[in-house]
UniProtKB/TrEMBL annotation:
<feature type="domain" description="EAL">
    <location>
        <begin position="1"/>
        <end position="251"/>
    </location>
</feature>
<protein>
    <submittedName>
        <fullName>EAL domain-containing protein</fullName>
    </submittedName>
</protein>
């Protein structure tokens, strides 16, 4: 594939970059973290969406070097933010199952000087399809460093609730399809969000609602008790410099 060939050179050619989307506290609406999201501006193909190239990167294992770069870059950028602001990085199963995943995290933290407690790693339920015990061991290693782990896109994967007993996720990210559903008065979506919030509360985990696009949706989500909110209403994924400006304006 042409795209795969170009992707092999994308890192060297500095075509890969990160944008940052704010996550706010649902009550105070203060920014508590940013999720780092990868972007590829290919010289040959123009901007390629992550929905298109992340799966290719995963199939070819190019996600391992790309993911390492993402970790390092996100940690480096986060050191410029106020100390209470954290950074969340998406981790593919291919990365998590690399034997030296935890050392890649250590290297990113050491090189940047970022406090481990400011780094959150986002994984999806798909990691449990492959090898739950290896996934768990790997996540426990990074949690021992002080990092937290979020369960991303919750509710749309091949959910087994069993692993929620075994892994201390700090946050469950409620997939935006439920948020959109709830906003359109879907009784089922509302019931599912309520149940996830109640479950997270009793497991001492927080919840982040994804894909909140309006003030009305934010209010609904706050009433449903989600701890944090992410979505276009509070900010689109933005360049690092714009993320930084967001604080400077607010104080
Ligand atoms: O940014 P956007 O919504 O277009 O992202 C689309 C998908 O790509 C999402 O599922 C997101 O989790 C994934 N993604 C974005 N950035 C990264 C990254 O740095 N690493 C991995 N593995 N996936 C990412
Ligand atoms: O799978 P993950 O949650 O990591 O993907 C995050 C993706 O969701 C990003 O690509 C981001 O662009 C997208 N996203 C973030 N906020 C919103 C939103 O409010 N509406 C929609 N439609 N997409 C969003
Ligand atoms: Mn994510
Ligand atoms: Na998500």
């Amino acid at each position: 594939r042409q795209l795969e060939f170009a992707l092999r050179q994308a890192l060297e050619k500095s075509e890969i970059e990160l944008v940052y989307q704010p996550v706010v506290d649902s009550r105070t609406e203060a920014v508590v973290s940013f999720e780092a999201l990868v972007r590829w501006n290919s010289a040959h193909h123009g901007p390629v969406s992550p929905g298109k190239f992340v799966p290719i990167a995963e199939d070819t294992r190019l996600i391992v070097p790309i993911g390492t770069w993402v970790l390092e870059q996100a940690c480096r950028e986060a050191t410029r933010w106020p100390e209470h602001v954290r950074v969340a990085v998406n981790v593919s199963p291919e990365q998590l199952f690399e034997p030296d995943f935890a050392s890649a995290v250590v290297r990113a933290l050491t090189a940047s000087g970022l406090d481990a407690r400011r780094l959150e790693l986002e994984v999806t339920e798909s990691i449990f399809l492959r090898d739950p015990s290896v996934a768990r061991a790997s996540l426990e290693q990074v949690m021992a460093l002080g990092c937290t782990v979020a369960l991303d896109d919750f509710g749309i994967g091949y959910s087994s609730l069993g692993y929620l007993r075994k892994i201390s996720f700090s946050t469950i990210k409620v997939d935006r399809s439920f948020v959109q559903g709830a906003a359109q008065n879907s009784a089922e979506s509302l019931a599912i969000i309520r149940a996830v919030v109640a479950m997270a509360d009793s497991l001492e985990m927080t919840t982040t609602a994804e894909g909140v696009e309006s003030a009305e949706e934010a209010e609904l989500i706050r009433k449903l008790g989600c701890t944090k909110i992410q979505g276009y209403y509070f900010g689109r994924p933005m360049q690092a410099d714009d993320a930084l400006k967001l604080f400077r304006r607010r104080r």
